[in-house]
């Protein structure tokens, strides 16, 4: 045993000795240590401490990628390939430490391989096909393109030898198409039924009115944040942005660090055009958001970059293969439709449809080229010409390709209904304050012109489609108008466009099997992809959380067409790898987005993802992303405030208050931090603390509407409704679109006998935020106060339908039903509400006990009232009801005890005092 032990010790010692020796060759660099303590080992033999970590970098290395290691790539989605190759790579010795810092010793896997895949697919997209890779010129061109990007990092490809190219066999599947119809999807960005109805007062919109009269229509609930590429991608994938990966207009390019417009190659899941291509279905999409670079489909794609070349100062020059790469699929289609482009200088006849008076000279650049000038946000007319030229271009392409191809699924996207809103909504009559009468006269009809143009295009679509096609009209969000308009200028490059968006967009359907004159209820953007698949006769993806909009279709048709489901799409039609490098067009498009106020720079993609998590109750995930953002941008106060809000939602009040107070100390005028602090104190019933913070906010900025709203909340909680209503009214003077202030005034007025005024404010609250169950509930309160009980009951039911977990909706409905003697319904609703965790449990138990008491079920009633008191010992009504039942049952001591407790809580309760005197 001793001999064995000695051998073990010697073996261990030998192992430690070997691990301590490092021989460094002349063609390599070995680094040890981390951070500031990184050092390079000398050439030759080095003796290190045992277990010292090292990273080895070969200055000249050949990577053999064959067989299972071959480079996989796609020609755009329909076919996949494997490229067997040998790649020679060189590193500059002087830059190895920088390489180590950024990529450690996995530079090939983390940097080179992803760039190679991108450049290979880009080369294929610009060529006749994958076979182009077999030429010697391909290796030289790809290596050169890669070296342009990685050369400054001290890395270069010195050889790229292709050994073989293989097509990967397609995965077999047995998916079947059922009996379906053709579908035409018309996307109108920012279209809003409220604006539509306002325009109807001065303009005819016959085609949209025909769709509403002969088809179905309704509001389409969007998702927050109200970012167009995020939402339009959701509509064609049926999954949430954290799954599909498109969360903003701009993303950072991994190499340059520059922010570039989002592309289809960043999408992580198949879109509907990938799915239809699995079947014997043709599709065509024109101008769809985030469709560049165009993917290979059974049909065609004209990407959202086709018209954006007119924003490029080089648009008038001959466009080479590089600039046209990925613009369309098939690539040669771009040549065939290039003559359909409408230049900004050629839209003079269109401008009077939007503005009045003589036309001003349009800005030109060097050589007479027309271009988008982001430095001139005060020139809405220059921007208008660019908007017109873009939508007219896509309109011409739509008409030509739909008539020529007649695909089973066709989609076209028009941005102008949103971008004209950002340019001209503030002028829409009545114009916002600060707008001169001259500008109101000149620009006041621009929005009406936009809706008239949308209606004209819709008329052409109705003429193009046949009797076997269903037309689906959608918008990604609505647009604030009238008194809802924010005071911010969305065009000033501060990324304020979202503040002008309403969460309710539009949806409409027209065609065979569609109901007539029916209003759709409860539709959302998650429902669009499942509905499109269903109409086409295709299985719905099981991971899609939306529903098929069956209530838009005839019941007989639905019965004959059951919904089928599948989980195979991700494997069969996974995202494609086609990609393109940043180009000059990216800068032009970015300038255009800034000019319209869509983007403001910074890590907004992270902020959008975190906002999505927060809005959907995923607070832990939101917090994790906010913390990442704060680490990247330590001075980002908005991200810190959002961190505080996430902590609060997770029940960590102390941490939340500390984070928010830190922000408020750093910036006493940080209104959002103060507002969040008020919200925490209000939610926890700390009225005086809330009032103190609200007073700080009003002092810091007397013109901030939310601060006065917070003051009203605190005063209302303190039992000072008259002062609270005054604060709410002041809030509305400063922020007219504050739906919550209207709702709270309505509730105060309803309780104060001012029913008609309560109803006015409740209607305004619903107009502004009718998708929120709170607003529907307040409408019920106001209607009930006005004696309109049936309408009030319907409003409460709508609140429950909007959010099945919204307990006040149940309470309102139960109150009316109880007064009508509908005790069965009360017990059903209250039982359902009692299972929902909420601060209203005591009141729900009291309502349920009252229903049992009305039915003479004393035992059940006592049980419910007892549970009500246990949930909230200060529930006076439950104690009074309990005392009454005890008195009826001859339990005088118990009744007296309850009544005495009532009078401790509420000394002025005359009913309790009277009953107590009778019993004593």
Detailed description of the structure:
With 920 residues, the chain is α/β, with parallel strands linked by helices. 49% of the residues lie in helices and 13% in strands. The protein contains 38 helices and 24 strands. The strands form 7 sheets. The chain has a 9-stranded mixed β-sheet with strand order 16-15-14-17-10-18-21-11-22, with helices on both faces. Strands 6, 7, 8 and 9 form a 4-stranded antiparallel β-sheet that branches. Helix 23 (653-666) packs antiparallel against helix 24 (671-683). The longest helix is centred in the middle third of the chain and has 26 residues, at 380-405. It is globular, with a radius of gyration of 33 Å. The model is unreliable at 4-16, 309-322, 367-377, 575-580 and 595-602 (pLDDT under 50).
What does the secondary structure layout of this molecule look like, with pairings?
Layout: H1 2-20, E1 21-24, E2 28-32, E3 39-40, E4 44-47, E5 54-58, E6 60-65, E7 71-74, E8 80-91, H2 96-103, H3 107-125, H4 136-150, E9 155-168, E10 182-188, H5 193-199, H6 206-214, E11 216-221, H7 228-237, H8 241-244, E12 250-252, E13 259-261, H9 272-276, E14 283-286, E15 299-302, H10 321-324, E16 328-329, H11 333-336, H12 380-405, E17 409-414, H13 416-424, H14 437-443, H15 446-464, E18 469-474, E19 478-479, E20 501-502, E21 504-510, E22 518-524, H16 528-536, E23 540-541, H17 555-560, E24 565-566, H18 569-572, H19 584-595, H20 604-615, H21 619-632, H22 637-649, H23 653-666, H24 671-683, H25 687-700, H26 705-717, H27 721-734, H28 739-751, H29 755-769, H30 773-785, H31 789-802, H32 807-819, H33 823-834, H34 841-854, H35 858-871, H36 876-888, H37 892-905, H38 910-919
Helix pairs in contact: 3-4, 12-13, 12-15, 13-15, 20-21, 21-22, 22-23, 22-24, 23-24, 24-25, 24-26, 25-26, 26-27, 27-28, 28-29, 28-30, 29-30, 30-31, 31-32, 32-33, 32-34, 33-34, 34-35, 34-36, 35-36, 36-37, 37-38
């Amino acid at each position: 045993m001793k001999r064995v032990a000695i051998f073990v010790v010697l073996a261990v010692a030998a192992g430690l000795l070997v691990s301590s020796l490092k021989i460094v060759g002349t063609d390599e660099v070995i680094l040890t240590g981390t951070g500031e303590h990184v050092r390079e080992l000398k050439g030759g033999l080095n003796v290190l401490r045992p277990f010292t970590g090292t990273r080895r970098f070969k200055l000249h290395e050949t990577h053999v990628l064959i067989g299972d290691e071959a480079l996989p790539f796609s020609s755009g989605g329909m076919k996949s390939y494997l490229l067997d190759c040998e790649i020679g790579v060189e590193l500059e010795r002087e830059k190895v430490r920088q390489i180590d810092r950024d990529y450690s010793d996995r530079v090939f896997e983390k940097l080179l391989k992803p760039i190679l895949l991108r450049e290979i697919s880009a080369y294929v997209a610009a060529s006749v096909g994958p076979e182009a890779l077999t030429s010697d010129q391909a290796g030289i061109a790809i290596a050169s393109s890669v070296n342009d990007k990685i050369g400054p990092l001290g890395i270069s490809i010195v050889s790229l030898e292709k050994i073989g190219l293989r097509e990967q066999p397609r995965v077999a599947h047995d998916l079947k198409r059922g009996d379906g119809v053709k579908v035409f999807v018309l996307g109108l960005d920012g279209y809003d039924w409220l604006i539509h109805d306002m325009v109807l007062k001065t303009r005819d919109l016959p085609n949209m009115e025909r769709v509403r009269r002969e088809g179905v229509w309704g509001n389409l609930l969007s998702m927050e944040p109200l970012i167009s590429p995020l939402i339009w991608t959701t509509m064609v994938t049926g999954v949430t942005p954290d799954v599909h990966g498109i969360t903003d207009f701009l993303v950072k390019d991994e190499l340059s660090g520059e922010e570039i417009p989002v592309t289809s190659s960043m999408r992580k899941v198949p879109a509907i055009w990938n799915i239809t291509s699995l079947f014997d279905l043709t599709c065509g999409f024109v101008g769809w958001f985030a469709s560049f670079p165009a993917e290979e489909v059974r049909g065609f794609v004209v990407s959202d970059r086709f018209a954006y070349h007119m924003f490029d100062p080089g648009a008038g020059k001959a466009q080479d293969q590089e600039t046209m790469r990925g613009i369309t699929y098939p690539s040669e289609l771009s040549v065939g439709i290039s003559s359909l482009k409408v230049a900004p200088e050629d839209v003079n006849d269109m401008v009077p449809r939007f503005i009045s008076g003589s036309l001003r000279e349009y800005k030109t650049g060097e050589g007479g080229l027309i271009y988008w000038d982001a430095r001139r946000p005060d020139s809405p007319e220059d921007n208008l010409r660019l908007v017109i030229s873009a939508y007219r271009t896509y309109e011409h392409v739509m008409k030509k390709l739909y008539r020529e191809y007649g695909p089973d699924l066709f989609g076209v996207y028009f941005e102008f209904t949103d971008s004209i809103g950002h340019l001209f909504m503030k002028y829409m009559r009545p114009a916002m304050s600060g707008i001169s009468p001259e500008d109101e006269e000149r620009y006041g009809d621009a929005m009406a012109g936009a809706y008239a143009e949308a209606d004209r295009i819709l008329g052409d679509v109705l003429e193009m489609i046949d009797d076997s096609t269903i037309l689906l009209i959608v918008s990604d969000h609505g647009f604030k108008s009238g008194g809802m308009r924010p005071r911010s200028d969305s065009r000033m490059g501060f990324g304020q466009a979202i503040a002008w968006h309403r969460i309710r967009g539009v949806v409409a359907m027209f065609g065979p099997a569609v109901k007539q004159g029916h209003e759709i209820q409860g539709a959302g953007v998650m429902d669009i992809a499942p509905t499109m698949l269903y109409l086409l006769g295709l299985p719905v993806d099981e991971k899609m959380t939306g529903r098929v909009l069956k209530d838009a279709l005839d019941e007989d048709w639905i019965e004959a067409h059951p919904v089928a489901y599948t989980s195979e799409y991700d494997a069969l039609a996974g995202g494609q790898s086609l990609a393109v490098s940043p180009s000059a067009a990216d800068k032009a498009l970015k300038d255009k987005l800034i000019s319209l106020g869509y983007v403001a720079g910074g890590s907004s993609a992270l902020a959008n993802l975190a906002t999505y998590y927060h809005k959907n109750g995923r607070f832990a995930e939101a917090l994790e992303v906010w913390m990442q953002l704060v680490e990247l941008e330590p001075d980002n106060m908005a991200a810190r405030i959002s961190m505080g809000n996430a902590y609060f939602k997770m029940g960590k009040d102390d941490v939340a208050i500390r984070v928010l107070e830190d922000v408020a100390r750093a910036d006493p005028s940080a209104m959002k931090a103060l507002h969040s602090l008020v919200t925490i104190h209000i939610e926890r019933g700390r009225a005086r603390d809330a009032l103190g913070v609200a007073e700080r906010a009003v002092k810091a900025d007397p013109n901030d509407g939310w601060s006065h709203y917070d003051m009203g909340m605190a005063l209302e909680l303190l039992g000072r409704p008259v002062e609270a209503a005054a604060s709410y009214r002041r809030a509305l003077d400063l922020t007219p679109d504050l739906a919550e202030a209207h709702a709270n005034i309505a509730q105060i007025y309803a309780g104060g006998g001012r029913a008609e005024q309560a109803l006015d404010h409740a209607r305004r609250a619903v107009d502004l935020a009718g998708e929120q169950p709170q607003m529907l509930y307040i409408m019920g309160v106001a209607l009930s106060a006005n004696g309109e009980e049936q309408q009030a009951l319907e409003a409460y039911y709508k609140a429950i339908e909007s959010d099945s977990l919204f307990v006040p909706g149940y309470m309102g409905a139960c109150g009316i039903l109880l007064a009508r003697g509908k005790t069965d319904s009360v017990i059903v609703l209250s039982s359902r509400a009692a299972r929902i965790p909420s601060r209203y449990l005591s009141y729900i138990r009291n309502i349920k006990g009252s229903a049992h008491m009305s039915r003479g079920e004393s035992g059940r009633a006592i049980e419910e009232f007892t549970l009500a008191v246990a949930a909230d010992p200060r529930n006076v009504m439950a104690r009074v009801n309990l005392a009454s039942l005890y008195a009826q049952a001859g339990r005088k001591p118990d009744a007296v005890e309850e009544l005495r407790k009532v009078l401790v809580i509420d000394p002025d309760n005359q009913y309790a005092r009277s009953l107590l005197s009778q019993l004593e």
